[in-house]
Structure to design on (444 residues):
């Protein structure tokens, strides 16, 4: 059935994430995927510039992942993960993650995705401080431009204000500090940008009162906010501040974990460890909804030794099929060195973008870490002035790129790219060509 006819049926019966009837009129219905390419219902191929939603790391059409799901479904499709029940795949996955993640993190709670992981981190942090006899430590500090999901507490942590208006009031006890955003953060004289941005956390803790702050939640690289890569001195200072004021550092690695930035876990770039790590997306390359959190040994022993039940649960925690697909996908990540591929191909993509677009009058910044890149468009390069929102420059470039065969997303006027690790060099080069031509078509 043609794409247009399918969209008519879709519109009659579906409510979509980020639902907008007007924005959905030009939607595409996907019917097939292979590697880094998607095919729509009209038979047209597109480079999948965002690997689905940052998650299809191993690429589309991996038969080994489908086989892992089929085999587990035939053996044990579902079993409860509640206390008193377990399954072999969950045990194996926990063991394997303990060998892969930060050395201090050895215990895991599994979810269906990243939003549930954020909720689990918040509840784990609050529970931990209560078990430590510090019940007033409940507040969450996160960052402007950060994305942590859209369930109610996760949305309250998310620092993208467009997600808030229809759902106010937000959950109380959530505080936002500025992003380190190297292109736009203004540091005071004599202080490095990274240290100054990190010190925003200390100032917020002191304003709120250290005895009230449970955790600081941060993506190592802010994804949906526009691929914001922090300065090299930012996270080491963040770790110092969290230690000084007894605040848990929670790394939201839902996008960055399992290789996207060129290392298996992204805080390894800066040689620090979080107290809690959140993950989802690439753990199964999106083939099965799956996610979770890992907690450090101190939190785990506190939870065990107290004896009170941690009354937090999901029906699909430790789902056997999700665990089986995750295990098989982790083998692909290791066997094919997807972190190494992301590092190498990310360097190639970033260099090509800078070569093709670096001198364009309306390209303000080109940035990236591993296979996460972004091109930020501005009205004036000298002042970094943004285009008026009504000009819809970003959406126009996005649609021009889609017409050229590249499908991805924008954050305002920033075009983001995070293709599958298995993308070919030819498709990387074509990605740059399409984006260059699309920006020229819209902005001259």
């Amino acid at each position: 059935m043609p794409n247009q006819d399918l969209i008519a049926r879709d519109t009659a019966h579906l409510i979509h994430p980020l639902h907008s009837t007007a924005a959905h009129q030009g939607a595409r219905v996907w019917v097939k995927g292979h590697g880094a390419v998607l095919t729509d219902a009209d038979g047209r191929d597109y480079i999948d510039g965002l690997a689905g939603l940052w998650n299809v790391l191993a690429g589309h059409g991996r038969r080994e992942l489908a086989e892992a799901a089929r085999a587990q479904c035939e053996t044990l499709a579902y079993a409860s993960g509640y206390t008193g029940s377990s399954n072999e795949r969950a045990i194996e996955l926990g063991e394997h993650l303990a060998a892969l993640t930060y050395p201090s993190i050895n215990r895991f709670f599994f979810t269906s995705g990243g939003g549930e992981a954020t909720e689990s981190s918040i509840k784990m942090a609050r529970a931990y401080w209560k078990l430590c006899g510090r019940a007033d430590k409940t507040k969450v500090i996160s960052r402007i431009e950060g994305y942590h999901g859209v369930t109610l507490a996760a949305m309250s942590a998310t620092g993208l204000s467009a997600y808030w208006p229809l759902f106010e009031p937000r959950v109380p006890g959530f505080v936002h500090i500025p992003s380190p955003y190297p292109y736009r953060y203004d540091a005071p004289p004599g202080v490095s940008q990274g240290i100054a941005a990190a010190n925003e956390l200390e100032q917020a803790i002191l304003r709120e009162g250290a005895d009230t702050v449970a955790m600081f939640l941060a993506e190592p690289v802010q994804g949906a906010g526009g691929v914001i890569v922090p300065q090299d001195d930012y996270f080491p200072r963040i770790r110092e501040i969290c230690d000084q004021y007894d605040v848990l550092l929670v790394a939201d690695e839902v996008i960055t974990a399992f290789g996207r930035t060129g290392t298996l876990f992204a805080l390894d770039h800066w040689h620090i460890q979080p107290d809690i790590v959140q993950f989802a997306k690439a753990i199964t390359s999106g083939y099965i909804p799956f996610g979770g959190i890992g907690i450090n040994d101190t939190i785990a022993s506190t939870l065990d030794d107290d004896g009170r039940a941690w009354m937090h649960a999901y029906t699909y925690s430790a789902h056997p099929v999700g665990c089986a697909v995750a295990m098989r996908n982790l083998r692909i990540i290791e066997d094919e060195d997807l972190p190494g591929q992301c590092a190498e191909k990310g360097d190639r993509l970033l260099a090509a973008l800078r070569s093709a677009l670096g001198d364009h009058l309306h390209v303000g910044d080109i940035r990236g870490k591993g296979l996460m890149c972004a091109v930020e468009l501005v009205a004036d390069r000298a002042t970094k002035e943004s285009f008026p929102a009504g000009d819809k420059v970003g959406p126009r470039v996005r649609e021009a790129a889609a017409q050229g065969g590249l499908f991805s997303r924008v954050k305002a006027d920033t075009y983001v790219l995070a293709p599958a690790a298995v993308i070919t060099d030819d498709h990387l080069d074509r990605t740059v060509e399409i984006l260059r031509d699309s920006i020229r078509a819209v902005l001259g």
